[in-house]
Specification:
alpha/beta; seven-stranded mixed beta sheet
Length: 366
Amino acid sequence: MNDFQAIADRVEIEALRAEFTDAVMMRDRPRLAALFTPDGALRMPNIPVEQIGREEILAGGERLQSQWDFFVQNTHPGTIQLDGDTATGRAYIQELVRTLDGRQGLNYAVYHDRYRRTEEGWKFAERVYEVRYLDTSPLTGTAPHTAQGSGTDPAHATATPAPPSSFTDPATAEQLERVAAALRAGGFAAEILDDAAEARARIKDLVPEGASVLTGASETLRLSGIDEDINASGQYDAIRPRTLAIDRATGADEIRRLVASPEFVVNSVAAVTETGSLVLASGSGSQLPANAGGAAHAVWIVGAQKVVPDLSTALRRIEEHALPLENARAQAVYGMPSAVNRLLILNAEPRPGRGTVLLLREAIGY
């Protein structure tokens, strides 16, 4: 191997290790799994965890990350020994973590790595995590909600609007009016209603009997009774019951077509910003095409606690509040964790009148 090839290999392997830390910090679980060979292994004996193959690494990452309140990982370069199309190496890790159940600590660890050259470039064949130091003393810091501007003078720092004291607190009347005005400016129809019962009645005005309707997997719809009204009353051509009756192995294409372009989609959102953006999160992404524009008409019912100042806070609300609750539900119902694998952000409605947002004065759903 010539010196140039050796240098290029070392640079690529170092970039691979940096990509791993970035994927962890950004909670990008599919990207994290893709950094391994198809039969790659991630082993963390102290937890204990052993994940073999990309699917197990993806699912395991979802389980771990769903437990975090916050997590910070720093990677320090270590050794790399090249051997043709394989290599070994070590990377040194410092981590701070606090979980939703209160566990917390600081640790220093080593990743013992094996790498393999593939058609997609260098990948991890194996990462074995060895803790060298662990301190479980209470952490005194918090995750800040301000970001520094490009200047070093604090006077030039730009502050991100502080999130609500709790992601369960209902928005004020003034906030709801701001949201409604911003939505209307973006081409959405927006109405402010007192509660879920009023929204339930309003749906019957907005969605004519006999229409084909897809309902999203939404606690708001379930708790309000809207889900039952649409899927069990017999008054609509309800898409969800039809898809549940189709064999998943042989009818996947039919299911995909049914959910992609109904006449109506009725759903909720994970957050709505005061600047007029709707944010939806999904594990599979199956319900997102209809919301994005596949359905001829869309109605979203939004509890007052889902109002946030901006998109950055909306994403925090999803990761810190909605995902842990949905993960617990998914574990109880399906025996497997949930994940935010797809995000849909609707900043405006290109077809004015297509989308209606029913903003509630009460909190409901996640």
